[in-house]
């Protein structure tokens, strides 16, 4: 009886999780292309919405926080400070939300063919990153031509680390809730709550010094170790800090004390989120076709 070597064949349902992205990169590119092409299909404004929606959001926040509540008078170059934080949170919210719905939105593919299911949440994060780039472009234009921002290697490196943290956290949470969402659609409600709270749970509309004045002990440490808080502060350092005077009492420039500890803690939290998210996703993946 002839024996057949099956070591070179892939067994459906068995994979390496996120690592399979490198093996299925061609399909990943197709999913990303599909996500970007269909986002604004049959829309009159098309990609202009990538500028309009964050612009309206920014104007509302600036009107309420900057003018009505007076943050503009207490924080130097507050418009730039606010916008640098908003683009980070928008990236997280879009990536997290899209990743959560990635399996449900692609139910026809999940039910008919086998491919690593992780490709869908990962492609959703990449699509969110592509839509994040126009906002960064506006941020750069405003920072350079209005506030005289000068790029530096350290600042650009800080921004890249911030993007990595946000993308990792969005993917980890997205995998976790994407798996649960297929069987229990209540997961979408939890995701909406997290997205709603994310803007207020990081120093986007206010400075970290206001939090430090009113929160102490472990509560402050938990707040500062929040990956979104760390990512927002990295963006503030990259785009806002160099535009304010270091001796200004109301500017609040500089990293919070012990920021390197918070950065390491945020990276650990992201690693845990990816690990737990992948584990939960793989557990629910077994019944995706039936549950859909």
UniProtKB/TrEMBL annotation:
<feature type="transmembrane region" description="Helical">
    <location>
        <begin position="153"/>
        <end position="181"/>
    </location>
</feature>
<feature type="transmembrane region" description="Helical">
    <location>
        <begin position="218"/>
        <end position="239"/>
    </location>
</feature>
<feature type="domain" description="ABC transmembrane type-2">
    <location>
        <begin position="45"/>
        <end position="284"/>
    </location>
</feature>
<dbReference type="GO" id="GO:0140359">
    <property type="term" value="F:ABC-type transporter activity"/>
</dbReference>
<keyword id="KW-0813">Transport</keyword>
<dbReference type="Pfam" id="PF01061">
    <property type="entry name" value="ABC2_membrane"/>
</dbReference>
<keyword id="KW-0472">Membrane</keyword>
<protein>
    <recommendedName>
        <fullName>Transport permease protein</fullName>
    </recommendedName>
</protein>
<feature type="transmembrane region" description="Helical">
    <location>
        <begin position="119"/>
        <end position="146"/>
    </location>
</feature>
<feature type="transmembrane region" description="Helical">
    <location>
        <begin position="55"/>
        <end position="73"/>
    </location>
</feature>
<comment type="similarity">
    <text>Belongs to the ABC-2 integral membrane protein family.</text>
</comment>
<dbReference type="InterPro" id="IPR047817">
    <property type="entry name" value="ABC2_TM_bact-type"/>
</dbReference>
<dbReference type="GO" id="GO:0005886">
    <property type="term" value="C:plasma membrane"/>
</dbReference>
<dbReference type="InterPro" id="IPR013525">
    <property type="entry name" value="ABC2_TM"/>
</dbReference>
<keyword id="KW-1133">Transmembrane helix</keyword>
<keyword id="KW-1003">Cell membrane</keyword>
<keyword id="KW-0997">Cell inner membrane</keyword>
<dbReference type="GO" id="GO:0015920">
    <property type="term" value="P:lipopolysaccharide transport"/>
</dbReference>
<feature type="transmembrane region" description="Helical">
    <location>
        <begin position="80"/>
        <end position="99"/>
    </location>
</feature>
<feature type="transmembrane region" description="Helical">
    <location>
        <begin position="259"/>
        <end position="281"/>
    </location>
</feature>
<keyword id="KW-0812">Transmembrane</keyword>
């Amino acid at each position: 009886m002839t024996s057949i070597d099956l070591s070179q064949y892939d067994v459906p349902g068995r994979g390496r999780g996120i690592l399979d992205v490198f093996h299925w990169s061609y399909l990943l590119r197709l999913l990303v292309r599909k996500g970007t092409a269909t986002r604004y299909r049959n829309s009159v404004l098309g990609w202009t919405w990538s500028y309009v929606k964050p612009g309206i959001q920014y104007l509302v926040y600036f009107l309420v926080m900057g003018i009505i509540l007076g943050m503009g008078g207490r924080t130097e170059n507050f418009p730039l400070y606010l916008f640098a934080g908003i683009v980070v949170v928008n990236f997280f919210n879009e990536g997290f939300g899209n990743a959560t719905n990635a399996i449900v939105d692609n139910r026809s593919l999940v039910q008919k063919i086998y491919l690593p299911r992780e490709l869908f949440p990962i492609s959703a994060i990449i699509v969110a990153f592509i839509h994040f780039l126009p906002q960064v472009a506006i941020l750069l234009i405003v920072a350079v031509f209005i506030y005289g921002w000068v790029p530096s290697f350290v600042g650009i490196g800080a921004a890249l680390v911030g993007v990595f943290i946000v993308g990792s956290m969005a993917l980890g949470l997205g995998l976790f809730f994407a798996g649960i969402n297929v069987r229990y659609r209540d997961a979408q409600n939890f995701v909406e709550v997290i997205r709603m709270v994310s803007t207020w749970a990081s120093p986007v509309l206010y400075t970290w010094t206001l939090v430090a004045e009113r929160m102490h002990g472990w509560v402050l440490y938990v707040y500062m170790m929040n990956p979104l808080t760390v990512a927002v502060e990295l963006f503030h350092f990259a785009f806002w800090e160099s535009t304010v005077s270091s001796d200004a009492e109301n500017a609040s420039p500089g990293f919070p004390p012990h920021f390197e500890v918070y950065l390491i803690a945020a990276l650990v939290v992201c690693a845990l989120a990816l690990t737990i998210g992948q584990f939960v996703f793989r557990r629910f993946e077994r019944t995706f076709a039936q549950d859909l």
